[in-house]
Every structure is written in C-alpha cells, then in structure tokens.
Amino acid sequence: TKTETKPDGSSVTESKTTNGTTGTVKTDVNGRTEAEAKVSEKAVEGAKKSGEAVKVPTEVKAGEDSNSAPTVKVELPKDAGETKIEIPVEDVNSGTVAVIVHPDGTEELVKDSKPTEDGVQLTVDGSATVKIIDNSKDFRDTRDHWSRDEVNFVVAREIFNGVGNGQFGV
C-alpha cells in the first residue's frame, strides 16, 4: 500500500493484494472520496471456494447521506457472476449500509448488506458501483436499551421504522 498526500490536502492511496486485486482510493481537497477496485480471478475463485467474501483493498469512511458517501467501483472478472464482497469501512457500525448505484444513476439500498468487524459485506452480480452510508438513526427509547444495535440494523436498512417523535417503540 502506498499513499501520496498532495500539498492541497488531497490524497491517493494505491493497494495491491497478494492475489492480484488492486485498489485505488482518491480523496479530493473537499474530502469527497472515490475508490476503484479491480478484483482478480484468483481472488474470486479463492473466495467462492472458501465461502468467504472477496476483501476489496479500498478502505473508506461512510458518508452521512448519498451526497457525502464515498463511491466504490468494484470491477469483477468477466463471468464472475454473483460474488460476495467486503468493502472495508472506517468506524463501521450496525447502521452502516451499502447502496448500489445503477447505470442510470438511480440508487438502491442493499437491505441484506451487513456490517462486519472491518467493513460492509454484500453480494453483487458482476461489476458494481456502491456507496457506503452510515444510515444510523437515534431513537430516544433505545439509547440505553439492550436492543439498540439490532434496532439500528433493521431501521438503517429500512426494514422497520420508528413510531414517531424520535422513538422506536420498545
């Protein structure tokens, strides 16, 4: 991994894994981040054989919304088909979600994306562009409740909503 920080504060980090996967993370002077990863056939084959996700070498920090979210372009080998990938995320939490950006620019929250110890895991069918968003919600009645992380998980994925007035309804 090699990082170059320019005098204006922007930076470029380039990474290459032992299995041939490469990643580049570019952060501009305003803090906007774009990342690209080219996943090798060897990485996809190894992950599918072991049942694990392909770890993409592009760590990003989740944005608060679609406008501030980092964009990660993941290029899989031709004919890779459905592949489980993991995008490393700084300070990942139960409300961190993946959003697929379709070629026409529309966005779709990936309800089955899940936080891991190091990032967000999701399944893609071929190459994809993904945004990483911290979609956490703060409900007054779950702040000190045992179910806080579980509530945050389902609400961040828009599976459930709160009852209003800043409460979930436990």
How would you characterize the overall build of this protein?
- The structure is a single chain.
- This protein is mainly beta.
- It has 2 helices and 13 strands.
- Strands 1-2-3-4-7-13-9-10 form an 8-stranded mixed sheet, with no helix packed on it. Strands 5, 6, 8, 11 and 12 form a 5-stranded mixed sheet that branches.
- The relative contact order is 0.15.
Notable characteristics:
2 helices; single chain; 38% strand; 13 strands; mainly beta; 170 residues; 11% helix; globular; five-stranded mixed β-sheet; eight-stranded mixed β-sheet
Number of alpha- plus pi-helical segments: 2
Our measurement of the CA-to-CA distance between the termini, rounded to an integer number of angstroms, reads 46 Å
Supply the helix-strand structural class. mainly beta
Walk across the major sheet and give the strand order: 1-2-3-4-7-13-9-10
Mean pLDDT reading: 93
Count of distinct strands:
13
Specify the overall morphology: globular
As a percent range, the share of strand residues is 35-45%
Order of helix and strand elements from N to C terminus: EEEEHEEEEEEEEEH
Low-confidence stretches: none
Radius of gyration: 17 Å
Q: What is the subunit organization of this protein?
A: single chain
How much helix is in the residues?
10-25%
